[in-house]
User: Fold these one by one.
Assistant:
Number 1:
Amino acid sequence: MCDMDDAYYVYDRYDRCVGLGYHCESTHQIRRITGDDRAHFFDWLDLDFESVVETIAGDFTDVLRPGLVEPFSDGLCALDRGSDIRFFHDFRPSSGTALTRSDIDRQLDGVRAKFRALAERWRTLARSSAHVLYVHHDAFDELTAADLRRLRLVIATAYPRHRFDLLWLRRTPPPDGGALGPGISWGTVAAVPGRWEGDDAEWDAAFRDVRFAPPPPPSSREPEAQPAPEPSVPPGASATPAPSVTDRSTSV
């Protein structure tokens, strides 16, 4: 976590740790560190900060609307124009490696069903008594303390009784880290060129002061979101360059 005298620390034990993007590195590392592989809405997606804020503020209703999902980045992923989220793992090409519009249209109902279930899982968790740590990986050091305060306000407004904190992870320390306010902390995780999973030691250090309740055994967990299978990324796979809407992301 951060080491600034005027920063806000959170040392309580959390029941869940939920990632809020930016891309697959955060999902992989959160699961590795916590040992909890339960799926959440923003797992394995490639999305900008504004997409996270707008999706939560809109109660997930603007994601994957029919007619707004199309092939992107030469067919490497599907872009949802309604939310600006890039889906690299949920739509499969019928042949070759490039998605087509017909591939997306044919699979859209199944993918929408999966994300409707994940949205309901989000709501259920946010309305429960669980203490949740949300993690946003600011992979390009673009955000400010005001952005993180806005994100926290959006979640708190939607779920007034929700007990949660935010962890803001950047490549370098934020110049305004002292202006975050209660319930928000920051840490750093350096990039590792050519390794989409990120640096294990860096992520371990960022979570050094965070404590989690042990996850329940698999037999007592809630069912995974269906019917679309949860995406997986082969261990040790290298990153595949894939320009985002703003042409600056590398995602897997």
Number 2:
Amino acid sequence: MDTRHSVTRCLRECGLDLRSAVRSRRRGRLDAARLRMTASAYDPDSSELITPYVQEVRLIAERATIELRGRLIEDRHTLVAAIHSGAVPVVVQYDERRSDSPALLDRWGRSVAEWRTAAALCRTRAESIAGGANLRLAHYWDAVWQRQSAVDEDPRTRPQDWLPGRITLDADWNEPDSWLTAAPGAPSVLTTALRVLDGGHARAGRPAA
């Protein structure tokens, strides 16, 4: 799912691959005349610069990354189910009986580690999509900047850090464990078991139950 080939194919299907540069620049030249002021006069965070084209690119990237996350959960449904069911004995052993069982925690921890690895690979793919979208925006704004500079007879180059509409992944991509819960952040058997796992109870050195 997360090979370089699949990333390239996804970018192409979303219209975010390198071949989109020509279309992005063409649209930038058209929009340059429609902006009420020169692009360089605007703060990159100005709402005036969130043009229909910028909105389009952002929506494409957002939809693609949401689909990635959903596909990960669907493809790994057996693993997700195992993590949920395995969380119950971990909580019973550690939270209720107050007794360590390193072997039990290690077995369940391997499933969690597999999930986290898959989520990290999925995040890499999502970052590629965000990067492809930002490249498309860069071509667009380069064309806007150059067309307006030509009219002003004052050739300028777009500063690298000036990219209105820049796309970043939302905060949920930093907490893939929350995707496993029906209500992220709410107390549950799974969140309790994850707290036990990440607290390192299996490494405490006490005998297994």
Number 3:
Amino acid sequence: MKTFDFSDLSTIEINAEMEGFQPRFDNTLALTAYRQQTLILTREGQAVILNCRLQECLSRFRKENGICRHELAAYYSLARCQTQAIISGHYRLVPTHGASNRQVVYYMAHHLDTYSYSQRLNRLLIILKGQGGLYQLRVDASFSSFGRILAAADQVANLQLANIEGAMWRMGVYQDSSGLRPASGTYLSHQQGLAIHQQILANYVMAVTNEAFLATFGELPDADFQRRLNSVIGYAGLPLKRYEKFVK
């Protein structure tokens, strides 16, 4: 099993530096900032330098995968976690720290085999499944924080998938291949799913509105504006004070 020490990037042998590599959910294991560039570990176990900053790389990644950060924030408002991954259902690009931490490493959680903490090395060990076998990443991160961020990402992924399944039920598209009626196929569960869908949509609209309001007027809208917005949407989003932390 090959090891990559992401807590000391100088120890990693760089295989290539390029402009055109496109990191995807299926060809990448991990990303991190490397000077003014981005270091990418591919599923083949190659260390590639991409000539753009990490945040630019992540922004491009969201756009190329059709992931809206406001919609993602609406899901995260239900997960109660400020450290956000980039999630598209089963596909999850998850950070080891908050985005502002210089040592943050983004890894593909759908390729995660296991993780543990080495007291001897004083490092978190992340085992990822690549095309050539297993690869170990050494990361300077808290074991408990890592688990909390990963659990929130899994919760958001489940919410996304449940929301899609609920939409399929509402549109008459869903069909269970086994011929059995699933436990979720009840009137009450459908109503609960609809309520979650409405909450996410309301939070999404509120995120976009708050950011536009903040950019235009230099402050967030007051509670009266929020009540009017909720009446237009037709169902309430998160209370403003609880939502402020999602507006960046």
Number 4:
Amino acid sequence: MTLAVAGWLMWVLPGPQLGAVLGLGPVDGVVSVHRCYEATDAEGYATGTDCTGWYTPRRAGAEAREIVLDTAADEYRRGTQVEVRTARGRAYELSGTAVFNFGSAAGLLLVPFLTLAAWLFACARSGAVESSDGYFLVSLAGLLAAIVLAAVAGILVGIATAVF
């Protein structure tokens, strides 16, 4: 049950955006950039570069519209054409910042559920309530590992997009 809740939360929260950022599936369309700006979250912290522009879908019958290119890989000039994938009304491309943001969100979401599932499995296997001290420490190490892994992936994607 815990893993089902974790899977559902992954689908509801960062899953579609992470899939779009990682390039899963075909390109949905092209954004013609109008302007780029430094985006902030609700607390005012910088979250990367967002761009607004005109989205032209590749699918026949879909209409063009204005869209936000979330966590863009670069601060594009006006008129630049960027191939994107869409998720939840926003456009995404492969960028180091986006991989870090959504990768760390996915890791921070999954690690506690996986640790809880492992502890519950150990309790069920032994037929008694197991000590959770070791599982708590593994959970903390897993959270740290998720952030480090997301940072390394983000840096590697940033380097790859800069070089290629």
